[in-house]
Amino acid sequence: MSKRLESKYKINRRLGVNLWGRAKSPVNKREYGPGQHGQRRKQKPSDFSIQLMAKQKLKGYYGNIGEKQFRKYYDEAVRRKGDTSENLIDLLERRLDAVVYRMKFAITPFAARQFISHGHITVNGRKVNIPSYLVRDGDVIEVREKSKQLAIVLDAAQSGERDVPEYMEVDHRQMKGTFTRTAKLSDVPYPVQMEPNLVIEFYSR
């Protein structure tokens, strides 16, 4: 098991949820946290800890985004017009690694990030190797021709673990998809409850 995979599963156990809804998640068998103190009796959480947990879940879900970058998404969400919580979700869903994961070109957000970094993805016909690149409405995301028959791509496309959300259109025969519109919280197929309103409260304290 790679260090990346171990870290991913630790996120699940630390948060006590099956963050990506995967059958392999160890939290399905062990709902307590990792480490020697993982089974300690839990105390009633404070408002701060509830808000912090909401932030950690959202950060972790999108491939464990760094705090500095995640804070930038919050600042941009505040700057934009409309509901800040919805703006934050839309920004996260526009990350190229999130889009590649949603379109089922990769089996996990971590795999999507690596897939993009290795140059397997194009946006509007141009190679993009930056996982945090933000796509726009109407952008066409495609697996490069030489990469379309890779086993990891075919396995992801055939996976029944999740469905492609309504704000995207995907043709898995051509390994091509389009980001069609703004992603709203109610549209996003999270396996666990996400509470971006608590994340906003955490940063606006």
TrEMBL record:
Q: Does the keyword Glycoprotein apply?
A: no
What is one GO cellular-component annotation here?
Answer: small ribosomal subunit
Residue stretches making up the RNA-binding S4 domain: 94-158
Q: Name one GO biological process term.
A: ribosomal small subunit biogenesis
Q: Which keywords accompany this UniProt record?
A: Ribonucleoprotein, Ribosomal protein, RNA-binding, rRNA-binding
Q: Where is this region: Disordered?
A: 26-46
Sequence ranges assigned to domain Small ribosomal subunit protein uS4 N-terminal in this UniProt record: 3-93
Record flagged with keyword Amino-acid biosynthesis: no
Q: Which GO terms describe its molecular function?
A: rRNA binding; structural constituent of ribosome
Fetch the InterPro entries from UniProt: Ribosomal_uS4 (IPR022801), Ribosomal_uS4_bac-type (IPR005709), Ribosomal_uS4_CS (IPR018079), Ribosomal_uS4_N (IPR001912), S4_RNA-bd (IPR002942), S4_RNA-bd_sf (IPR036986)
The entry sums up its family as follows: Belongs to the universal ribosomal protein uS4 family.
Q: What does this protein do?
A: With S5 and S12 plays an important role in translational accuracy.
Q: Which NCBIfam families does the record cross-reference, listed alphabetically? A: PRK05327.1 (NF003717), rpsD_bact (TIGR01017)
Assembly: Part of the 30S ribosomal subunit. Contacts protein S5. The interaction surface between S4 and S5 is involved in control of translational fidelity.
Q: What is this protein called?
A: Small ribosomal subunit protein uS4
Source organism (scientific name): Gluconacetobacter entanii
